[in-house]
Amino acid sequence: MRDPYDVLGVGRSATESEIKAAFRRLAAQHHPDRNRDDPEAQVRFKEVNAANQILSDPQKRAAFDRYGEAAFRPGGSGGVDFADFGGLDSIFSDLLGAFGLRTGEGGHVKKTLEVTFEESARGGKKEISYERIDICGGCQGRGAAPGARVDTCSACGGRGRVRYQQAFLPIALERPCSSCRGTGSIPSARCPKCDGAGVARGERTLSIDVPPGIEPGSTRTLNGEGHRLKPHQPPGDLELLIDVAPHPFFRRSGDDVLCRVPVTFTQAALGGEVLVPTLGGKVKLKVPPSSQPGAVLRIRGQGFPHRLRSGAGDQLVELAVEVPEWLSDRAKSLLKELGDELGEDVQPERRSFLEKLKELF
Ligand SMILES: [Zn+2]
Ligand SMILES: [Zn+2]
């Protein structure tokens, strides 16, 4: 075993954050996925992990400072078999943590599922891919290399667990056997893909049913689609957080769709018809005469489907009366004439869109 301080390249008095930073840097540098052509990388990577396990844990670090590597040999003079405490679980959680993956309690995984505005209204199928730890495909979880002989572990007699005595505690405790990593058997050669762990990282793709009308911020849990941290353990769950991408034209308010549609001064004053996009395609909307800027019109049933009852919300259309940017000489003189005809009468004060909405409910 190499001196963990040398492995991480830090001094004896290194702080917790210095150790963490060194670990992250070296783990990324020697990660086997980044060094596929270099078989030595895996060895260096494990060494970095082992060093971090000792130096990131104050108890283990103190034991190393006091007893050196003897503290980490089974039955070493440190009195406690520290190497067994972390074991595979903590290698994985350190590792995943360093790469921004959280295994969470029991291997639960959290992911965000982004859907479009239209998908959140109509529903549909959505694919999601994520990295997941599961039974190793190279050994089907046995941890043995192909063709390797598998013997019963002599350290635990095949039970996978051993009893141990902790200082100051009068009773013996049980922990997973470190010799066989809790499996109860020892292969003559370890599976090269998972190094005997029986579980490995892989890509998982799922097809998710998005129900119509799904709300942003809602969650869905898929049982058993999280990480399997040990071959004989049930996998954790996958929790999906639904995120709805903003739409350039529509907004959502409850089960209603809100939008803003430009109309000309003439359409607003005389009334008319405008084409309005909805989630179900374009519809003709009647603009009543004397419509004020900011008036809100309702298109029934073009909103989001109600979740708990039948039917759907509405689309609320705010009218934006547009003033022309360019006028011909004839248009100018017509407008001037119109101005003279209308006089200086002040139009009704425009109320805000929100105030209009409040009146509707
Ligand atoms: Zn394997
Ligand atoms: Zn064993």
Quick rundown:
This protein has 361 residues and is an alpha+beta fold. The chain is 27% helix and 27% strand.
In words, what does this structure look like?
- It is elongated and about 105 Å long.
- It contains 9 helices and 15 strands.
- It starts with a helix and ends with a helix.
- It has 3 domains: 100 residues, DnaJ domain (Helix Hairpins), CATH 1.10.287; 104 residues, Urease metallochaperone UreE, N-terminal domain (HSP40/DNAj peptide-binding domain, Sandwich); 110 residues, HSP40/DNAj peptide-binding domain, CATH 2.60.260.20.
- It has 361 residues and is α+β, with helices and mostly antiparallel strands.
- Strands 10-11-15-14 form a 4-stranded mixed sheet. It has a 3-stranded mixed sheet with strand order 1-9-8. Strands 2-7 form a two-stranded antiparallel ribbon.
Give the CATH architecture of the largest domain.
Sandwich
> What portion of residues is helical?
25-40%
Count of helical segments? 9
What's the count of strands? 15
Q: Cα distance, first to last residue?
A: 73 Å
The rough form would be described as elongated
**Contiguous uncertain segments of 5+ residues:** 75-104
Strand order of the largest sheet: 10-11-15-14
The helix/strand series, from N terminus to C terminus, equals HHHHHEHEEEEEEEEEEHEEEEHH
Structural class: alpha+beta
Mean pLDDT: 83
Number of domains: 3
Radius of gyration: 33 Å
Percent in strands: 25-35%
What is the fourth-level CATH superfamily of the largest domain?
A: Urease metallochaperone UreE, N-terminal domain
Question: What is the CATH top level name of the largest domain?
Answer: Mainly Beta
Main β-sheet description = 4 strands, mixed
- Could you tell me the CATH topology label of the largest domain: HSP40/DNAj peptide-binding domain
User: Which distinct ligands sit in these coordinates?
Assistant: zinc ion
